[in-house]
Specification:
The protein has about 375 residues and is an alpha+beta fold. It has one domain. It contains 9 helices and 15 strands. Strands 5, 6, 7, 8, 9, 10, 13, 14 and 15 form a 9-stranded mixed sheet that branches. Helix 1 runs antiparallel to helix 2. The N and C termini lie far apart (about 75 Å). The protein binds 1,3-dihydroxyacetonephosphate (13P) and magnesium ion (MG) (2 copies). One magnesium ion binds next to loops. One magnesium ion (MG) binds next to loops.
Length: about 375
């Protein structure tokens, strides 16, 4: 049967700053998801609720396809219910990511981050009898945050030996990259790798503007491997409302990269735009699922869960918290040290985000006022 995986995430309020949603919010959404999975409602095959920093992620499987109105409407209602609780509890940023009053149908572009993949779940499939996948959720950063890992997973055998070892992967992949500066419609480009890897690199170099939206197999072109939520909140809202905090689905094993190959690039703690006030450039830290933001700087965070889906589309019974494992402790310490060292430079130059990415306009307004005071020396 055809199954769609939908990961929809929003920040609708958090305790004491941009830290984490409250237990009451999570419990309420959890109950709604449980009810949507019940046989009477039948909306979802399965679903669960997690958080990464101040963002709530709904991870769902269903049979309605990508961009399906009933599923998107359900997610929106979940976030509205949690917003109400956030208001009652006096939490910060209640309803922060719900940027329109009532979205029509699909909520992509209405604030929440959406990553979805539809595939055939067939236990008798010759090349994909098992369905393994990873769900990433990042907080305090922009959608280009996945550019560095995705390039290395699909284009760089120095990071992913599977590109040499697996003959199905050796046939390459098709990248779909979106121009996030284009506001009216989706402006995208499709590039085959390895032939066009340097063209992919040239675009991904600028993660403020270009982000990987999807990756497909070239061995089986109908198979989508990756989906990233690549929309920018400030383009939707017209002003800063928070960082985009992207989610991603990556299908693994068989004709796709193995999970160990997919997470390897996260050892670096690569620099991304985000952090405090969404206005800095800082290294991203891999963290356990359901980790609040509590450190200095509001360091960018990323969580990663590994799942297997049974033939009925159910996947939540057991899972592995990849970045929650002790093997990532060393990386966490390194990233914190890297951040501490980097931020000793304060606001000068590269440590603060580019002016186009600056979330708060205070400095831009100040510069505008100062511009009037400049004069040309005779
Ligand atoms: P969020 O985008 O996660 O809400 O964080 C905003 C912020 O300004 C943190 O300092
Ligand atoms: Mg927030
Ligand atoms: Mg957030």
């Amino acid at each position: 049967m055809k199954v769609t995986l939908s990961v929809i995430k929003a920040d609708v309020g958090s305790i004491g700053g941009h830290t984490r949603p409250s237990n009451k919010m999570l419990h309420t959404i959890g109950e709604m998801v449980r009810s949507a999975c019940s046989t009477e409602k039948g909306l979802l095959l399965d679903g669960m609720v997690t958080y990464t920093g101040d963002d709530i992620a709904l991870i769902m499987s269903h049979r309605h396809g990508v961009g399906a109105e009933p599923v998107h409407k359900f997610a929106w209602e979940c976030f509205l219910a949690a917003t109400e609780i956030a208001k009652q509890q006096g939490l910060y940023g209640a309803g922060q990511d719900l940027l329109v009053d009532a979205p029509s149908g699909n909520i992509r572009g209405a604030g929440p981050a959406v990553a979805e993949i539809e595939f055939e779940r067939d236990p008798r499939s010759s090349y994909r009898p098992a369905e393994a996948f990873l769900v990433f959720a990042a907080d305090k950063c922009s959608p280009g945050a996945y550019n560095y890992p995705l390039y290395n997973i699909f284009c760089n055998p120095m990071h992913n030996g599977g590109l040499l070892l697996n003959p199905k992967m050796h046939q390459g992949f098709t990248f779909t990259i979106i121009d996030m500066d284009y506001k009216d419609k989706d402006r995208i480009i499709k590039l085959d790798v390895p032939e066009r890897a340097w063209d992919v690199a040239a675009l991904l170099q600028n993660p403020d503007r270009f982000a990987v939206e999807a990756v497909h197999s070239r061995y089986k072109p109908e198979e989508q491997i990756v989906s990233v939520s690549a929309t920018r909140l400030h383009n939707i809202a017209g002003k800063y409302t928070g960082k985009d905090d992207p989610v991603a689905i990556v299908r693994t094993q068989g004709i796709f990269p193995a999970p160990e190959e997919v997470v390897e690039p996260f050892l670096l703690g690569h620099f991304v735009a985000g952090d405090a006030r969404g206005s800095h450039v800082m290294p991203i830290m891999p963290v356990a699922i359901n980790t609040p933001v509590a450190g200095a700087f509001c360091l960018p965070l990323v969580s990663c869960l590994a799942f297997s889906m049974n033939p009925d589309g159910r996947f939540t019974e057991e899972y592995v918290d990849i970045f929650g494992n002790a093997v990532w402790d060393q990386t966490r310490l390194k990233v914190q040290q890297k951040a501490d060292e980097w931020r000793r430079q304060g606001f000068i130059g590269s440590t603060m985000a580019s002016h186009a990415e600056l979330a708060y306009t205070g400095i831009v307004d100040t510069l505008k006022a100062l511009d009037e005071e400049f004069f040309i020396r005779e």
